Amino acid sequence: MRAFAAAAVCLLFAVAPSPGQETPPPPVYEGKDSASWLEDLRTGDVPARKKAVYALWKMGPAMKEGVGDLGSALSDPDPYVADVAGRILVRLGTAAAGALDGAAVALEDERPKVRVAAVRLLRVMGEPAKGAAGTLLSLLDDPEAEVRQATAQAFGTLGYFVGSTGFASQVVAGLGGALEDPDPGVRKEAAFALSNYGDGALAAIDALVARLGDESAEVRAFAANALWNLGSAAGPEALDGLYGLLGDPDAMVRSRAYGGIVGMGPEDPRLFEAMRRGMEDTAPEVRQTCSWILGTRFGERPGVVDRLLAATADPAHQVRLNAFTCLSKVRPIPAGVFTAFEKGLKDREPQIRANCAQCLGEIGPEAAPFVPLLVEMLRDTEDLNAQVATTALGRIGTAAAEAIPDLRRRWRTRRDPYEKTNAGYSLARVSPRDRPEVLESFLAVLRGESARIPVLQAANGVGEIGPEAAAAVPLLRPLLASEDRATRITAVMSLGKMGRAGGEAIPDLERLLRDPWDRLRERAKVALDAIRAAQEGGR
What we know:
Blueprint: H1 8-13, H2 34-43, H3 46-59, H4 67-73, H5 79-92, H6 100-106, H7 112-125, H8 133-138, H9 145-157, H10 159-162, H11 168-178, H12 184-194, H13 205-211, H14 217-230, H15 236-244, H16 251-264, H17 271-278, H18 284-298, H19 304-311, H20 317-327, H21 337-344, H22 350-363, H23 371-378, H24 383-396, H25 404-413, H26 417-430, H27 435-448, H28 452-465, H29 473-476, H30 485-495, H31 506-512, H32 518-537
Helix pairs in contact: 2-3, 3-5, 4-5, 4-6, 5-7, 6-7, 7-9, 9-12, 11-12, 12-14, 13-14, 14-16, 16-18, 17-18, 18-19, 18-20, 19-20, 20-22, 22-24, 23-24, 24-26, 25-26, 26-27, 26-28, 27-28, 28-30, 30-32, 31-32
């Protein structure tokens, strides 16, 4: 503990809170409620205020009703009181909106640490912080670098809220000016912040391009990232600047530059050769970026498969993971791919083994030769690997008959709802004989269960079984009105897999086309298209 030259009582309380003290506190501290401690904070002498603010810190979430007083305490003459008041409010986040007036006053305090604390509070406060945006903007010219840096960082976080107002152009202009700040920390945060202003950041495009040559690697990287987010609208000069960074001495800068040139110029004739060179970079983060781009954008080009096959032996596991994922999507399946996957299923990294199993499941019945290895993985002590292997075997289908005893055992013994359902619909896909029993178990849950997770998993399970689960349609329809988003969207997706039987849900799905949630609208349209296609095709 940090001691103060004060009375013994202050020794106990005038200590900066540590992360270990952030456990859920009681609503009463030392026999006094929050109202009593807030009164001490407002009217007490320095020792009393120190003790009060510490008590309020310990009371945590119970402090929501006292945010106005805590906002005023941001400007307390005693640095400890001001500091802890700020920490309490930052911890409350958006619930601290009532402290806005106090924060606005603290932004003009003569002490830099108080101004920084106020800025950090506004950063986590969210939309209400728009009310102090004018004062906040002036702090981009504060004499103290730590204040300017915190301010630029805050505008990055508040971009979603400020960007929708008429004030956004002034903020972008201010951040553009901050890109010229003598402090590299300020320039870095300004570049990062501009990434959150969409096309509005185009007003600072010249300053961003200039920062591609900054002496600080972090500034160059964040400037490249901001240009990446602007896409092709950033223009040819920005694209040329990013190509110029491909030889940068800093790996993070090169990685951001590779990503940026894809986002800005996917049709640029230099792109393919740049990605090929990037695969030979000494930095794993660069090879990671390039392996993904090369595989997803240029998988059909001569020589790319060979490079991806070589990358499955890369020392960096993320590069190997990307290579396997990209290879699983190439059709027809190239020679050598299955040999690589056989090695991948035995990779030293559990994540690679799981990824290879998932990829084999996406390949489908053609991956049948790997069933013995997937069954072995099904018995793995790594839960993730066992779950992924279960799903993969289900996607391979009846060609995975060898796995039926293990899938059946897993379905009947697992207690976790997700694992049990996952094993159930995989078993139903692999073993037509077991399908009726599995389906009936899902229907029983949908008929009588109210707990969210079992219902969610059963709804997903009947969808995986498909048209043979037509009896589930009347049970899925009520779920479309659930207050739980995941339940609604799962029901929509499963209805889309029911073939002609899903027709009775068409009126419900059509109503969802007017739902406020865009993702639900999109899924409802996909489900409707699938049902209507099945009706037209007689399925």
